Amino acid sequence: MGVAGFASLISWTNAVALSSPDPKRPTLGMAELIAMTSALMALNALSIDIMLPALPDIGRAFDALGNERQLVITSYVLGFGIAQIFYGPLADALGRRTVLLVSLGAYSLATLLCLAAPDFGWMLAARALQGAAAAGTRVIATAVVRDLVSGRKMAQIISIAMTFFMAAPILAPGLGQAILLVASWEWIFGALLAGGGLLWGWMLVRLPETLSVENRIPIRIRSALKNYWLAASNRITLGYMMAAAFIFGGLFAFIATAEQIMAELYGLDVWFALAFAGIAAGLAVSNIINARIVQRFGMRKISHTAIIGFTLINGGHAFYALMADPPFWLFYPLLTLGMMLFGMMGANFSALVMEPAGKRAGTTSALYGSVTAIGGAILGSLIGQSFDGSVFPLLAGMAGLGLAALVIVAITERGQMFSAGEAEADAPSP
């Protein structure tokens, strides 16, 4: 997008006002809605990645030696995954604004508990609670946009918000490192507390209730369980959801071990944040490329090619690491390329999961987010905990997860890879 196009976009967002059913806050500007959505989505990425430079200090503070400190990351992701499945029904029954404010309030409380944790076990429990609270921001941000706009305009808003959201994993480790240069690790949680508090105040003052009373759906546990079962019983949804859980395991394994590998094993120290930002930027670029080419080549052709490339690159890289320690000049670009291929898989797998959802789009989205986060956290933690002072466990683990995902995709598509189902997908669940 050029300067003129960006200026036109800013002018458009400032000119459009969206009506809501809330008599106290009847309108919301398009630009502010995009800013709100971006900020709510970014909170989760910030809460994970800002912690990476501080993991050694946190480990020393709680006598969590070696690989134990990785659990500060994976416990958060696990809480985030488990809670997502509950937020959809709650937001449909109680309204978006109320549930979001409670979610952000619980996030601030959990952050305070992290600061007050007397030992490592309590720290992990508080981090899991922090992740569970933050899950509400992901679910409700999308629901608010869906309430106010639809069709291509909704897709445009989400795309713009995701563009800004991508800045969070790029900048977060650098922000954490900057805090550590002048203060202790506790101040990182202080920054998260301030961010959560500012978001809570912003939502309290400006966010309207976007779900009218007549459109609210009472919570019925039996009905919710039936909908989750029907969503999971679709072959395409189940297959790509399972495959996505495996590849997300590779992502979380990388995040959990990134500081140990790059800052300590390769001796980058304070330059680790910059190296991590480079990989995150590569992942962002791959998402942008995917958005540009997916209409031409299709979700299956891109994601199937990417998963084969991901498996081969990490497999070859792991074989090299088994023979000799890869120099950083080789390790870093190959790892970055693997993460870029992950970007080609993640977005398309998500779309393929949602393709047969029909009227159960909300249920399917919550199930997908929960399964990928929980499965990814468990698999990523297993790989992370096998770190032995070399890059081989990470690379071999990612290659193995890629191969497992490839087998699942092949079974899901009944052996017809690359273009199967592009013309006619499975019918939506009834």
From TrEMBL:
Cross-referenced InterPro entries: MFS, MFS_dom, MFS_trans_sf
TM region(s), chain numbering: 33-52, 99-118, 157-181, 187-207, 228-258, 270-290, 302-323, 329-354, 366-384, 390-411
Keyword Transport: yes
Annotated membrane topology: Multi-pass membrane protein
Name used for this protein in its record: Bcr/CflA family drug resistance efflux transporter
Subcellular localization, as worded in the UniProt entry: Membrane
Keywords attached to this entry: Membrane, Transmembrane, Transmembrane helix, Transport
Organism: Glycocaulis albus
Pfam hit, one: MFS_1
PANTHER family: MAJOR FACILITATOR SUPERFAMILY (PTHR23502), POLYAMINE TRANSPORTER 2-RELATED (PTHR23502:SF132)
Domain of life: Bacteria
All residue ranges annotated as the Major facilitator superfamily (MFS) profile domain in the record: 33-414
